[in-house]
Design a protein that fits this description.
Blueprint (H helix, E strand, L loop, with lengths): L1 H20 L3 H20 L1 H4 L2 E4 L7 E4 L2 H24 L7 H19 L4 H19 L5 H32 L7 H7 L3 H19 L8 H7 L2 H25 L5 H24 L3 H28 L5 H33 L4 H4 L7 H15 L5 H19 L4 H30 L6 H9 L6 H16 L3 H12 L12 H24 L2 E2 L2 E2 L9 H41 L14 H17 L2 H23 L1
Helix pairs in contact: 1-2, 1-5, 2-4, 4-5, 4-11, 4-14, 4-20, 5-6, 5-11, 6-7, 6-11, 7-9, 7-10, 9-11, 10-11, 10-13, 11-13, 11-14, 12-13, 12-18, 13-14, 13-17, 13-18, 14-16, 14-17, 14-20, 14-21, 16-18, 16-20, 17-18, 17-22, 18-22
Length: 645
């Protein structure tokens, strides 16, 4: 019953909020905030009980939910994200009232769908809620209804739909080979299956299906475009949680199906490293606050995928050190969610005060905004992997997973040495672009002295509720930065108590973190200050044409795939028409049906006569019989699928 409340109550609350908004907007806003905090309270009750639930016969295969350490932890993180963003959103939208009832409706629907994914007990349940949140979160991207928002929204929806179709294909392949999609039954079923090739093919399809939502290369194109146009509270959820929904699907599939598959591990490693490095470079070159944070999210997803891949490869090698990489991946998921909650809400404070995102426009605005400066600084320290802050421990575990791979997987040692340096340099890029953002907004002065004087004149930037949401969320960076807290959390999520012995602050581990920070400092001083900052302005040197969507995907779709599909469809249509005409003139031998009818008078009677004549040609023709036969076959096929499912 508790799981049902957590998953389905937000849907009911969303409908109630929509109805309330028609008469009382303030009541609607307060109701949504209360519902989000109540959801958080319900999630805490998961910890002592750890319930599970199976709904037989629902949607043919049934739906199942379960809780373990990782699921319970992420259900709570999800609820924290929604509670913080809804509390902050009330002030963020204080001057924007149009479309808010719709926004809150889909915010609550997405909360229920996200909790459904995080607590799912089988891949089909995961898929159902995954597709729901893909559609409901689409409205966040197009909320502003500007030209850029609509274009970004359709890119997001296109990637989501394509990803969903690929995911469904992977699930069908996996079900055919293993006979089940239940997480509890999959490991044994996969081991007993004689068709390991089909399982690998299904796993790769599932990887790309979930990877579309995660922002994994080469399906990342929606992420840098959707965040800048979406409202900042929605951006926090898109970056902090919805990308993790994709990572959750990849992680669960990996653990239950392909944890020891060498080729799958290599594929995830390559895609993870590209995602990690490309996101870091894009963020470093960006001059838009929210786009920088969006590209940063892409990079951090790459860090997590790299950790998952090392867990797979180390397991394939028979090494017990796989738990280190897996723990780092899970912890970095949690850390990144909470970090992006803070950073995007800080960006939201900037937007709701200035309605600007370009770095030159917002430069120097936060010099005298102390609490906001501290909150953003804590988030920057966390994501950069500075010791004593949360990102350091999870990134150190990920780094140690790569190092263990170098020692254990000898034939991949040269490749993994390169991966280690890409990892360290990508971490350095993170520190460099966070330094760029922090110094630009909170330390440097605007090049226009009159603008700077106006910025300095007002030290207030948010009300009490927003301060609680922003500053309160930033405290997670320090609390989770303590090794005793993080190792216990890792042990709770993975079930492996050995991780509690991990020495985060050993000289070896500190050396890796400090090398990455040193690289970041050099990149900031040399690349940012000398190359990307010219004539008192931040310049965008990233080539505009180097956009994967406009350079490859849209031309491929519009100039190649669409004409090819149109040609095939036309050929099929002409073939069917020719076949029907052939059958009508040979086998069927149809003759015109002539009936004597008294000629009617009047306008309505004439229309009735024409409709009857048209209907006779349809219902007495061979084409109609063929259509009815096809529908009958489909109905029979559907019944057989339902019966044998």
């Amino acid at each position: 019953m508790l799981i049902l409340c957590i998953v389905f109550l937000p849907f009911f609350c969303g409908l109630c909020a929509y109805i309330m908004g028609r008469n009382n907007e303030s009541l609607r806003d307060n109701f949504v905030i209360a519902a989000a905090f109540f959801e958080l309270l319900l999630c805490f009750f998961l910890l002592p009980s750890m319930p599970s639930l199976k709904m037989e016969g629902f949607l043919v295969t049934g739906m199942s939910f379960m809780t373990d350490g990782f699921r319970a932890a992420y259900a709570i993180v999800t609820a924290i994200m929604w509670a913080g963003t809804t509390l902050f959103a009330k002030e963020y939208f204080r001057h924007e009232r149009e479309g808010l009832s719709r926004y809150w409706l889909f915010v609550m629907f997405t909360l229920g769908a996200t909790e459904g994914v995080m607590l799912s007990g089988d891949l089909m349940t995961t898929f159902i809620f995954f597709e729901i949140l893909s559609l409901t979160s689409f409205t966040w991207v197009i909320h502003e209804q500007t030209e850029g928002a609509v274009k970004a929204g359709y890119t997001y929806l296109f990637i989501a739909v394509i990803g969903g179709l690929i995911l469904l294909m992977g699930l069908l392949l996996l079900y055919h080979a293993a006979g089940t999609l239940d997480f509890g039954e999959l490991p044994a079923a996969v081991s007993a299956s004689a068709d390991q090739g089909m399982i690998l093919a299904g796993g790769i399809c599932i990887l790309f299906g979930f990877g579309a939502k995660a922002g994994m290369f080469p399906l990342h194109i929606w992420l840098p475009k959707a965040h800048p146009v979406a409202p900042s509270p929605a951006s926090a959820l898109l970056s902090g949680i919805l990308t993790k929904v994709g990572v959750y699907g990849i992680l669960m599939t990996t653990l239950q199906v392909l944890i020891g598959n060498y080729y799958y591990g290599l594929l995830v490693l390559v895609l993870g490293v590209i995602t990690m490095a490309l996101g870091a470079v894009l963020a470093l070159f960006s001059v838009n606050l929210k786009r920088t944070l969006a590209c940063s999210s892409m990079s951090q997803i790459g860090f997590i995928l790299t950790g998952i891949s090392m867990a797979v490869l180390l397991t394939a090698e028979g090494s017990h050190e796989a738990f280190l990489a897996l723990s780092g991946a899970m912890l970095h998921m949690v850390n990144h969610s909470l970090i992006k909650l803070t950073l995007f809400m800080c960006a939201g404070v900037v937007v709701m005060n200035l309605e600007k995102l370009i770095l030159d426009d917002i430069r120097g605005w936060g010099r005298n905004k102390t609490l906001l400066k501290i909150s953003f600084g804590l988030g920057a320290l966390g994501i950069s992997g500075v010791p004593l802050f949360n990102g350091y421990i999870s990134k150190t575990m990920l780094h140690e997973g790569i190092v263990e791979g170098i020692h254990e997987i000898h034939h991949l040692a040269p490749m993994l040495h390169a991966v280690e340096w890409i990892f360290l340099i990508s971490g350095g890029c993170t520190f460099a672009y966070m330094l760029k953002l922090f110094f630009c907004i909170f330390v440097e002065k605007n090049k226009d002295s009159a603008v700077q004087a106006r910025y300095d004149a007002d030290a207030s930037c948010m009300n009490t509720a927003s301060t609680i949401a922003v500053f309160g969320s930033s405290l997670f960076m320090a609390v989770l930065g303590q090794p005793a807290v993080m190792t216990r959390l890792a042990a709770f999520m993975t079930g492996d108590e050995e991780i509690m012995e991990f020495a985060a602050f050993s000289l070896t581990n500190l050396k890796g973190g400090l090398i990455s920070l040193a690289i970041g400092g050099v990149l900031y001083l040399v690349l940012v200050k000398k190359v990307l900052f010219r004539k008192e302005s931040y310049v965008d040197l990233w080539p505009a044409w180097l956009d994967l969507e406009d350079m490859l995907y849209r031309p491929l779709l519009l100039k190649v795939l669409a004409p090819a599909c149109g040609f095939i469809a036309r050929c099929l249509a002409d073939f069917m028409d020719a076949l029907v005409m052939l059958l009508r003139n040979t086998v069927a031998r149809e003759k015109p049906v002539i009936r004597s009818r008294k000629k009617s008078t009047g306008y309505l009677a004439a229309i009735r006569e024409e409709n009857l004549l048209a209907g006779e040609q349809i219902f007495t023709g061979f084409t109609y019989a063929l259509l009815m036969t096809c529908i009958g076959i489909l109905l029979i096929l559907g019944y057989l699928i339902w019966y044998f499912a």
